[in-house]
Write a structure and sequence with these properties.
five-stranded mixed beta barrel, 144 residues, alpha+beta, 2 helices, 44% strand
Length: 144
Amino acid sequence: MSLKISVVTPEKVFLTSEAQQIILPSISGRVGVLTGHAPFVTILKPGLLRYEGTTGLWVPAVIYGGFAEVINNKVTILVNGAEEVKPFNDLDDVQLEMVDLIEKFQKLKMEGLKGSELDFALSKMQIAQARVFAIEYVRKNYPL
């Protein structure tokens, strides 16, 4: 028996697949789901989603935050956006973008900015971090 996974963005169905297990970037930490898991709903932060496909290979994706529901071996993930991981991306460029966004976020925070602008900056920073983690993960586990 396997999990049925659906990742849906506002624009499209990003992914439908069967998996042995999935790891979600929940706001309370990473959450692993196996077949037969108890039903639950969780809020997802921007981060790295990974699932073990039926072939045994782990597949990563970057998600922009949203919600996940697990019920009857079905994982429905509604997110603000998602990206495939491209291991051939220049890791240096992605790391520079991440450092730039971290610095911008820290500057806004030091200036006392609060509310939606700070939340948006935090989200952009978390997405950039997830891109870096995703590329590093793919390069480490599936070298070209």
